[in-house]
Amino acid sequence: MARYDHIDFTPPAGVREEAAKGLAWRGEFGRGGTAVGVARARDLSNGTNISPETAKRMASYFARHEVDKQGEGWSPDQDGFPSAGRIAWALWGGDPGQAWANKLTRQIDAADNEGRSIMGNIERRSLAIDEVESAVPLLTVESRSEDGAEREWVVGYAAKFGVLSLDLGDFVERLDPGAFGIVVERRGRRRPLETRALWNHDPNYPLARYPGTLKLTVDEVGLRYEFPVPDTSYGRDLAANIQAHIVRGSSFSFTVPSGGETWSQEDGRSVRTILAVDSLLDVSPTTFPAYPDTDCKVAQRSYDAWRSASADVQRRQIDRVLQARGKAASLREYLKTHGR
User: At a CB cut-off of 8 Å and minimum separation 6, what does 218 contact?
Assistant: First the structure.
């Protein structure tokens, strides 16, 4: 449901009133609707939140039964009002319910499409402690006093500013200090930030969730995360492995918006600078902080597009030079022919 957290599934007043009317009609006239429709009307009239699946079923019901409006007894000025079809329609929320269900379906479809788009653009980057110099610990376990009791916290940096990444094949990367505006200033958030802390990016091993047990901050070093060690076997194992220096790296999953990066040539190397991150899916202590090829496909696509655009610009510049040279040669030949 996290994908749909921004959608309000609470029945509006008009929907509640129509469902209550349908229940009253059915009690009075003894017709219209099924047991499913009656149960739906009770939930709607009580203002009970519906599920995304129910929203889609409601939209489907209204689409199938739109034809019922043509039957006798639909309108108050017709004999047999309210007809069984009109009562059933009311049980599902009536015209307000139809408009609401169609709106919810559009929002759900948009969220699904956005989710698929995000999944295709997720990147992961790692911070290997052995390869980065730092004046502060980049991954550690701290003991803190809380309400008179000691509790262990995992504290780490998922990203560090001012350092170039490992070699990504054809290029390297760096993070701009303003890249995590969605954490610091809530800039660019399309929905509430719900970053998870996961063990090795595995959703089967959740450790914490922002803004509850997971704390995210951005300082002069980079993106810092911290969370209390969960009282689970894998949580305790993680803390022990960090303390034993077996787990020595962190990683984060993210997406970059359009315009959120720049490319340049520095010392003969292509450098991608990430200026903005528009979603921060997770931060993770990792056993193997490396850059598998699968984690760099999005950046590789961006690199290929930049190289192609750069080549096009270069070709146009060469064409202009050649055209200018051709015009100059033609002018010299003209002057020579005409004795000037």
Answer: 177, 180, 183, 184, 224
Cα 308 to the center of its chain, rounded Å:
28
In the 8-state DSSP scheme, what is residue 133?
A: -
- Whole-structure pTM value: 0.55
The full set of domain ranges for the chain reads 2-119, 123-301
Other beta carbons within 10 angstroms of residue 194's beta carbon come to 16
DSSP annotation of 131: G
Q: What are phi and psi of 158, to 5 degrees?
A: -80, -25
Alpha-carbon Rg for the chain, nearest whole angstrom, is 31
Instruction: Supply 196's token pair.
Output: 């998870």
The low-confidence residues of the chain, meaning pLDDT below 70, are 1-2, 114-120, 128-135, 166, 186-191, 289-319, 321-322, 324, 326-331, 334-335, 338-340
Q: How far is CA 225 from CA 196, 205, 289, 318, 321, in A?
A: 10, 17, 16, 50, 53
pLDDT at 295: 47
Specify the pLDDT at position 312. Answer: 57
Closest CA to 68 of 28, 100, 42, 33: 33
Residues 287-315 have pLDDT tens digits of: 876 554 444 554 455 556 666 666 655 66
